[in-house]
Amino acid sequence: MMSMSMSMPTSYVAIFTIAILGSFSHCIGMCGGFVLSYTSVKIDSSWSKKYQALMHLLYGIGRTTSYVVLGVIFGFIGQNIGVNLFSKGILFILLGVLMFILGISFIDKIGINKYLKLDILEIPIIKSIHFKTFKSKKAYSFFIFGVLNGFIPCGLVYFFLSTSIISSSAQSGAIGMLIFGLSTIPALFIVGFMANIIKNKFVKIFNYVASFLIISYGTITILKGFMMVLK
């Protein structure tokens, strides 16, 4: 059962809202480059538009698969950590602070983002597989490429993994990350066609709104944690 400061349906709506806003701002900025680069290398212009769309969809499904796996893992961790209300409260406070910092990172003016980056693609075996799937035009390579990119850490992923831990349930963690992954597909699906328009017109607005929502979510989580600690 999801032990959060909001009810399960409300939490999922919040996840969907933040994911949509984040996908049209943070994801386009960070992951848009991956989409544009693999589009230029992996997508053959002779393919039909429907087939090209299917390849993009396979990439998105691959990323979402990774997110669901991470959601199960972090939800399970949350389920088995904090055996009493006090320790659970401390966990909520720490994760709330992390969410608050991640919210600030969306409108970063003080260099927080440089501390949130981990280059998982520098691990030799992952780097090798990533390179091979990047060059391949076979359908399955789009899915694998998406799976690998799904494990690349970023602020938005950190935030949703925090919600998975707080959910205290592997199932709820998986559902939350599934919603997150599916919500990011539309923005990255059209990034090749509308990247410049979106980046110039709307990214700043989406960043500020997503930042506000994440900071609010973090604040609520901190307050929830203090309520647990003080009981």
TrEMBL record:
TM region(s), chain numbering: 12-36, 57-77, 89-107, 139-161, 173-198, 205-230
Pfam families: DsbD_2 (PF13386)
Annotated ranges, domain Urease accessory protein UreH-like transmembrane: 14-219
Alphabetical UniProt keywords: Membrane, Transmembrane, Transmembrane helix
Statement: the UniProt record of this protein carries the keyword Plastid: no
Name of the protein: Heavy-metal-associated domain (N-terminus) and membrane-bounded cytochrome biogenesis cycZ-like domain, possible membrane copper tolerance protein
Source organism per UniProt: hydrothermal vent metagenome
